[in-house]
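Lab notebook, design round three. We kept the backbone fixed and only want residue identities now. Task for the bench partner: fill in a sequence for the structure below.
Input structure tokens:
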């Protein structure tokens, strides 16, 4: 079977040959009236149609190659665009990661304790427990009970440790507890997690002046978190007409959903008080 391309080329060659023969016959009879003139009259319309056909076929052929070229160029442009988008995504991610790491590095400079930076590699999907998994474990010096923080404030406490990984109980978990105080008035209480992602400031005496917006920091009296670490901001206060305590809710400074890197404090009990004047940087 012949390809379409060969058939078209052969057809064009035949048409050209017929035209050449016809013109040759016509030239020989140019000055005499007779079969030559009759031949020209007969062949001219055919030649015109042939010429139009040639140009038509040539146009189709050129447009075909043009479309093939455009398609190929379009594919190349799509590949280049995809590569550019991927490079831009990587650049954006690297930029965001560098910003977080710079914040952590600056935060580490404010701490006298020995610390280690860990990456969050997993989160507990359970609605009852608020925990994360980090990529540092016993081989890195991590042990059960160590505090975990970020530049914004307290994140939680290590509860389980393996050779290379650890589980961290977040501050918003209902079983979490941090001995804390209001930075402005020094009113003490216990920060405990709440299911709504907030914290409850329990056992705060009703006589203390507490206002929405007050900063709550760690007291250092629980033997886990160094004194002066930021916990959260008071978001609600209810004083009852009777009873010893008032109801205080606290919104943590950290965004649990956006935790990607954390700092584990390896020797928290060796430092009496955290420099709270720079902890918010």
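Proposed sequence:
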């Amino acid at each position: 079977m012949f390809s379409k391309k060969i058939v078209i080329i052969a057809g064009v060659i035949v048409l050209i040959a017929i035209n050449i023969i016809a013109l040759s016959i016509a030239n020989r009879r140019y000055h005499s009236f007779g079969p030559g003139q009759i031949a020209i009259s007969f062949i001219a319309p055919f030649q015109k149609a042939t010429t139009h056909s040639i140009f038509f076929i040539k146009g189709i052929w050129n447009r075909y190659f043009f479309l093939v070229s455009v398609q190929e160029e379009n594919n190349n442009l799509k590949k280049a665009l995809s590569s550019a988008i991927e490079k831009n995504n990587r650049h954006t991610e690297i930029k965001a990661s560098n910003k977080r790491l710079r914040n952590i590095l600056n935060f580490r400079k404010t701490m006298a304790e020995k610390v280690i930076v860990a990456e969050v590699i997993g989160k507990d999907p359970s609605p009852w427990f608020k925990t994360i998994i980090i990529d540092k474990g016993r081989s890195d010096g991590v042990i059960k009970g160590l505090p975990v923080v970020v530049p914004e404030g307290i994140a939680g406490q290590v509860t389980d440790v393996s050779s290379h990984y650890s589980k961290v109980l977040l501050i918003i978990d209902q079983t979490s507890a941090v001995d804390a105080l209001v930075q402005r008035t020094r009113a003490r209480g216990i920060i405990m997690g709440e299911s709504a992602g907030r914290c409850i400031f329990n056992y705060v005496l009703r006589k203390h002046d507490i206002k929405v917006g007050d900063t709550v920091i760690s007291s250092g009296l629980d033997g886990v978190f160094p004194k002066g670490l930021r916990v959260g901001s008071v978001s609600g206060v209810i004083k009852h007409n009777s009873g010893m305590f008032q109801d205080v809710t606290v919104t943590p400074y950290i965004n649990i959903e956006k935790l990607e890197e954390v700092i584990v404090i390896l020797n928290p009990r060796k430092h009496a008080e955290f420099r709270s004047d720079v902890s918010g940087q």
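Keep this in mind before ordering anything: The chain has two domains: 1-109, 115-270.
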